[in-house]
Amino acid sequence: MSWPEAFRELEPVVQRAPSAHNTQPWTLTYGADHVDIGWDPSRALPVSDPTRRDLFLGLGTFVETCLIVAADTGLRVTAGHLRLMPAADRYDTPFTVTDVEERRCARGRYAPGPLPGVALEPGLVRVPAADVAALLPVADRWMFGSTPVTAELREWLRLTPRHPRYAEDGLTDRALALSTMEAVGLRVALSPRVYAVGRRLGLPSLLAGASPVSPEDTVFVLTGDPADPVDAGRRLMRTWLALGRHGVAVHPLSQLLDCPHTAARLADLVDGPPLAVFRAGRPLRTPPRSSRRPTPR
Question: Could you tell me the superkingdom of the organism this chain comes from (predicted)?
């Protein structure tokens, strides 16, 4: 069996990589001695992610996940941007398949207290949580106030287990840490007819609500070269796995970078272009395992 054939058997595990809105945009094209990583345009977010920052961050997390899983299963593989190729040695990584499978996002409350000492990736900057808490309602009002952005978000929300793709992709009510009543309320509020009326009556401010970030939380911003978001995505994945080994989950706050006003304010807080922002902490409840679509055969 060639290494690409062996790698194909690992697809259910590498699919555990994170992506914006859990769109899982990556594709794999197999050659005789390489595997190319691409993306499905129907799984991009052209409205909220017009520069494809989140798309290529997600492809970067996927590249890193592929290398980790390949190394832990004995395959000697390296990466050249978005191509997996044979290597003389296994990829040098401390992470394992178990780390990949146990990684979680947690959007609920976190236990108080400092994070453990963890060696984090270059370009990661801790920012004052109070500043981020003040910016989040602004970003949320922008998101819910934009009809095209809200329509795109609606396409990826799975707010009831009856949704036909609930177990495949997108953001479920459980992943968003919503109660049954909260999920019903959000589903009704974002339905096209209700939203069209509510948007003119202050619905975006109501949906923004209270910030999920408290002044005691830990918030990080990943900086780097905007021209190389794939590398940033790889660093982001390694950071999240390092935190996960210490029982720390993360909560991406991408709307802060999608909203032009809050993106500019966030850039003022860090030394370098911000590419990702997230809160991190020990969740009070075990976060759910996010949905994944079946591996195509």
Answer: Bacteria
Q: Has residue 297 got a pLDDT over 60? A: no
Contact 291, 265 (CB under 8 A): no
Task: Render pLDDT for 35-64 as a digit per residue (tens, 0 to 9).
Answer: 999 999 999 999 999 999 999 999 999 999
CA distance 10 to 72: 11
d(CA 124, CA 138): 24
Calpha distance 117→278 (Å, rounded): 17
Interval 94-140: pLDDT, tens: 999 999 999 999 998 999 888 888 878 899 999 999 999 999 999 99
Q: How far apart are CA 74 and CA 79, in angstroms?
A: 16
Distance between CA atoms of 81 and 79, rounded to whole angstroms? 6
Amino acid at the residue 121: E
Q: Which amino acid is at 246?
A: H
**Distance from the first to the final alpha carbon of the chain:** 17
Quick one: 209 exposed, middle or buried, by C-beta within 10 A (0-12, 13-18, 19+)? exposed
Question: Alpha carbon of 190 to those of 122, 199, 207, 240: distances in Å?
Answer: 39, 10, 10, 31
**Half-sphere exposure in the Cβ direction for 209 (13 Å, CA):** 5
Q: What angle do CA 290, 60, 40 make, to 5 degrees?
A: 70
Q: What is the pLDDT of residue 296?
A: 60
The label of the residue with tokens 């920012």 reads 127
CB 226 within 8 A of CB 275: yes
Check: CB of residue 136 under 8 Å from CB of residue 107: no
Q: Do β-strands 157-158 and 171-172 pair in parallel, antiparallel, or remain unpaired?
A: parallel
The β-bridge partners of 277 are 221
Rg (CA), the chain: 19
- Structure pTM? 0.95
Distance CA 163, CA 174 (A): 13
